[in-house]
Amino acid sequence: MKVFELRFVISYIIVMSGLEEVAKRISEAGVVVISTGAGMSAPSGVPTFRGEDGMWKNYRAEELATPSAFRDNPTRVWEWYNWRREIIGECEPNAGHHAIVEMEEKVDEVEVVTQNVDGLHDRAGSSNIYEVHGNIWRVRCVGCERSEYNYDVPLEEIPLRCECGELLRPDVVWFGESLNEKVLREVYDIIGRCDLFINAGTSSLVMPASQFPVIASRSGAFVVEINLTETPMSNVVDLQLSGDVSEILPALVELV
Ligand code: OAD
After folding, report:
1. HSE, side-chain direction, 13 A CA sphere, residue 34
2. What is the pLDDT of residues 81-121, one digit of tens each?
3. How far does residue 26's CA lie from ligand 1's centre (Å)?
4. CA of 203 to the centre of ligand 1 (A)
5. CA-CA to 212 of 20 to 30 Å: which in 20, 129, 219, 234?
């Protein structure tokens, strides 16, 4: 056998044994938490935040997804959201989202904690979803706090205004803002009692979601990472599955 063939066989064996180990953990688990980031939606065509495809008119997300950017120029921020809503509106849940839904048939409790605002887990049909960074299809008044779903693409007459006269903003969490306390409490509760925690397609760079695997590990859960690349969590997790979430998750669920 040639050297490169041998390398291929060895890496195949490593991947398969990792998949089998995690599949066994899934079958034995009472509660599985899957925490997802932009990499979960990337195979659906949603741009990631830190990839080149996430750029808009030479702005980085960090320059637009902030309260001060909205105060300075709400129209520009809404233009960016119109661009993102247009892309996301064309996207469908991928095989990874569907695999998470299928997992519900094999595990007592599957909880999805997502940093994604695209609503794709909901469209795939997951039952328990915590959208810790909000939802791009919801708008919220900066004055009276009223929020509602709005699926118009593109939104006309931006910046949008509430009936009360104040500006409407996307109902998402921006840099420098706190997460919804009630949602966060519920998330910490499920992380604290899960048997298996899967960190899927997130760079683990943004607090507090970046710390969820650490909390899960301290609470005794087996922690797995699925990602195309290494992350700051790669050394914390018990097992790393290197690859595309839309291939790994279906392969895993098939093995359970
Ligand atoms: P990032 O764009 O920071 O990271 C995406 C991660 O997904 C990277 O680690 C990629 O390697 C990985 N990835 C990409 N495609 C993948 C695939 N097909 N399979 C597996 N992994 C893949 O996105 P997030 O970690 O979600 O916050 O970023 C976290 C938060 O920062 C976002 O929710 C947003 C952002 O700025 C706010 O807007 C508050």
Report:
1. 31
2. 999 999 999 999 999 999 999 999 999 999 999 999 999 99
3. 24
4. 5
5. 20
